[in-house]
Amino acid sequence: MRKYNVAILGATGAVGSRLIDQLAKSTIPVNHLELLASKKSAGKPLQFKGHTIKVQEATPDSFNNIDLVLSSPSSDVARKLLPEAVKRGATCVDNSSAFRYDTNVPLVVPECNADALKLHHGIVANPNCSTTQMMAALEPVRKAFGLKSIIVSTYQAASGAGGAALKEFFRQAQEYLDHKPMEHNILPVGSQPKHYPLAFNLIPQIDRFFSNGYSREEWKMIHETKKIMLGDMNAPQIKVNATCVRVPVPIAHGETVYFKVADKSATADKIKELEKNAPGVTLLDDPAHQVYPMPHYAEGHRDTFVGRIRPDLEHDDIFDMWVVADNLLKGAAWNTVENGEELVKRGLVRVPKDYYVKPGVNHQA
Amino acid sequence: MRKYNVAILGATGAVGSRLIDQLAKSTIPVNHLELLASKKSAGKPLQFKGHTIKVQEATPDSFNNIDLVLSSPSSDVARKLLPEAVKRGATCVDNSSAFRYDTNVPLVVPECNADALKLHHGIVANPNCSTTQMMAALEPVRKAFGLKSIIVSTYQAASGAGGAALKEFFRQAQEYLDHKPMEHNILPVGSQPKHYPLAFNLIPQIDRFFSNGYSREEWKMIHETKKIMLGDMNAPQIKVNATCVRVPVPIAHGETVYFKVADKSATADKIKELEKNAPGVTLLDDPAHQVYPMPHYAEGHRDTFVGRIRPDLEHDDIFDMWVVADNLLKGAAWNTVENGEELVKRGLVRVPKDYYVKPGVNHQA
């Protein structure tokens, strides 16, 4: 059995620590693991399967002899370093948005479009967290009945804005309860001029705005959905509309998803049956007994939780559902590792071009 | 000028205290004010325009010589006492759901259907909080362009579940920050068997569920919208779909509203212009400068805040907006008092049948 030299790029963040954990629990046979991050984290000791591994500064040469890169740095770092990894023969699964919209880069939620993995040229992209969970929930419906349109409203957790934002949010919550003014320096978007408290509030801005009034997060949900489901980020066959809102929840995004199917033989019961048997989905749908997905259930789990499936009362081809998933796991680390597992399973991790040139490194140990 | 003997029924709750405050700031000429509540609150001293008024136990005879009742008790109490008030000649504006769906009872958001007030037979109903703010925001669009369908997802504050729920929510937030287990005995619905923490969570249940999978809150939004906009709670001309979610915010509900217009000459700019000039609406819509409605802005204000108005990217007759309002003011106390103001302005407060029989009470002082 081939074993893989794996590098985790961006190993010290909230997603990075989960990448290490998900890799440890995965089916990927690991020969050697490099943990890579920025210079300031170099030397930091982290744990992997009971071994201590010191974080290395990520440089182009960090990827010499690496087979598989699981990556969650900033887009700028991904843009700079992943081509270097590819040049050195590695196959990368990247969680940043740097390469998602390149036609040469498959954008993959394994439950949905794992076959697209075979089109990779060294980089596979992970979708945005809010898109990923919606794809896992809607794919069984698309496959069985076809989809004509999707309208989604998100309830997105603070951790989606990064570790510093999450810390700010918790500090604000305590300040509010202590009747103190809430400090706000990061949320909604660190790089934007205005900041607002998220604690006990709702902020209808995730990422910056385009001139058409949509936020970049909303743009991502619209175009990533099309690329994942139809292979083309501007495909007109499925119409998508999204509104993204940051809510005072630490982990796990909620989404109300309203969707129109092509095949009118669809019923809520049939959709529930599909979701019950769908890979990566846990159906929690028994309103009479107050059973439905909530962030407190989803946190720490790989699955996408689906519930509140019901028909629109005035259209026989329209349905509603409520979808919740851990944005740091299904929305990031787990989907990345899951893509890595699929690449391994399908033999799609490239053999580095210098594989036989450096016999000292035993990739197949 | 006619002055009115006013009674506030349910004077001691979160909405009750706001009814007193909104009445004090209103244009209703008050001759005499009775503050009514359950027996256990009787004798409690409350303030109105610098005067101390003691709460009285609400009984049928409390409404003798009352012209106008502003009411926010439980539905059961409303059902029992308001017919007694009507029998005694009073005109009632009721914030409970007891009479909303009676064909003889107008359901009124003054910015939207004030003319329906003239159809009252003693009782005017206030809509559900989540419906009210959506009506204030959508009426300018309906009037100018017609509406074909509405899809709404709500982000509803804890205070909508009552004062005890709000207190529980704040206690849970502190418990969570202290890493203690969160006590949960009330939310999402006090009378239902299961309870979940709301702090740092999302609960997709407001009120109990019907067998078709919709919650009663969702049912209300669908049928109240039809009654307010079309005069018939089952009117098919405007299709409505709603998903209602409780969010960890104390006061002010958010709503993503996706709507289809009849007249395709509508544009986002025209809709913004309408909202800017709409009564009871404050337009906060400048995404480039991070200006949009948030609960922290809306809390304590009478207006409905509207922003993020933009066109759907794939349909020329569909638009999105984000609507936020103080659920205890526009969603309850202020809309009740505003209905009272309209009744007064239009001469629709009935003259009690025993008006001239009891000359000792000077209603016109």
CATH topology of the largest domain in chain A: Dihydrodipicolinate Reductase, domain 2
Radius of gyration of chain A from CA coordinates: 21 Å
- The share of residues in helices of chain A is 25-40%
Kindly report the name of the CATH homologous superfamily of the largest domain in chain A: Dihydrodipicolinate Reductase, domain 2
**Assembly classification:** homodimer
Q: In CATH's first tier, which class of the largest domain in chain A applies? A: Alpha Beta
- Sheet with most strands: strand arrangement of chain A: 5-2-1-6-7-8
| Strand percentage of chain A | 15-25%
Low-confidence stretches of chain A: 354-365
Topology, element by element:
The structure is a homodimer of 365-residue chains.
Chain A: E1 4-9, H1 14-24, E2 30-37, E3 45-48, E4 51-54, E5 56-57, E6 68-71, H2 75-87, E7 91-94, H3 110-113, E8 123-125, H4 129-145, E9 147-156, H5 163-177, H6 216-230, E10 239-246, E11 253-261, H7 268-276, E12 281-283, H8 295-298, E13 304-311, E14 318-325, H9 329-345
